[in-house]
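Structure ticket #2291
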Amino acid sequence: MLMAVVDGTNMVFGRLASQVAKKLMLGEEVHLVNAEKLVIIGKPSDITGKYAQRKSIKHKGKPEKSPSWPRIPHLLVKRMIRGMLPRESSRGRDALHRLRVYKGNPKNMNVDTKIENAGFDGISKHVTIDEICRSLGYSG
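Resolution: structure written out below.
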């Protein structure tokens, strides 16, 4: 089984996540390090507001059945990549099990995979995953 280590520092999240999802569906094991440094392009207040709204959605009849959105950066990234996989099928569930997301680089893994067309230019309005999580109440 192939293993790819991807660094998320200053990478555009949507572009990186779609290519990671494709690698997972092809059978590769993907380790994503520095997940808190991923960037989402757009107006920061709109982006943080969107995730705050998602977090506040509750079922009226059974609030315990509501969707849960994590506040921790690496779990939020894994949840967002999960949305790009067909997890109703066994292929999609197996692909999700092959994904490992880390905050920082705890195992000092050597980054060996470059994701093309996902680099951030530093000019556009943006917000990092860490800033989104801090706006949701993360304090770690």
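Closing remark: The chain has a mean pLDDT of 93.
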